[in-house]
Amino acid sequence: MHRRIVISLFVISMLSAALVKAPLPELPYGTTSAQAAVTKSLAGGAGGGGNVSGAGNRLGTLLSGWAVPVLTVLAGCLLVGALASRNIGTSVGIVVITLLGLIFLLAPQTVESFAKGIASTVF
Q1: In a domain, 74, yes or no
Q2: What domain range includes position 80?
Q3: Which of 36, 60, 82, 110 could form a disulfide with 91 if both were Cys (CB 3.0 to 4.6 A apart)?
Q4: Does the residue 117 lie in any domain?
Q5: pLDDT tens digits for range 71-114
């Protein structure tokens, strides 16, 4: 047991020493990496060129791309557990909540028009 600890510490120290000795990227004299990143962003070399219009739409697209598979897997695991315990009410609740969440993630325009239709009818 003690031998494994010593070997693990040795390997970790060698890897950290190798990372410390790794060469750094060349920067113009007098600039820091933060200044170089800002200059690159403003110059347009990093995709948006400092433009933040539509950031919410891009973030929503990114999150929905990740959220749909995660929600599906999570609901599947919960559903298997609920069905294994023979709890039908919980199973139906998980299915309904998952379907609502997926509708919000996959078709937000449909949800928006549905909510506007209800609001115009009520008010």
Answers
A1: yes
A2: 55-122
A3: 82
A4: yes
A5: 888 888 889 988 888 989 989 998 999 888 888 888 878 878 88
pTM: 0.46
Residue 42 lies in a domain: no
Rounded to an integer, what distance in angstroms lies between the CA atom of residue 77 and that of residue 73? 6
- Token pair for 20: 């410390």
Contacts of residue 50, defined as CB under 8 A and 6 or more positions apart, other chains included, come to 41, 42, 44
Query: 64 lies in a domain?
Result: yes
Angle between helices 88-106 and 55-84 (to 10 degrees): 160
Q: What is the pLDDT of residue 92?
A: 93
Instruction: Give per-residue burial for 10-34: e unless 16+ CB within 10 Å, then b.
Output: eeeeeeeeeeeeeeeeeeeeeeeee
Structure tokens at 5: 């600890």
Q: Which residues of 77-98 are buried (b: 16+ CB within 10 A; e: fewer)?
A: ebbeebeeeeeeeebeebeeeb
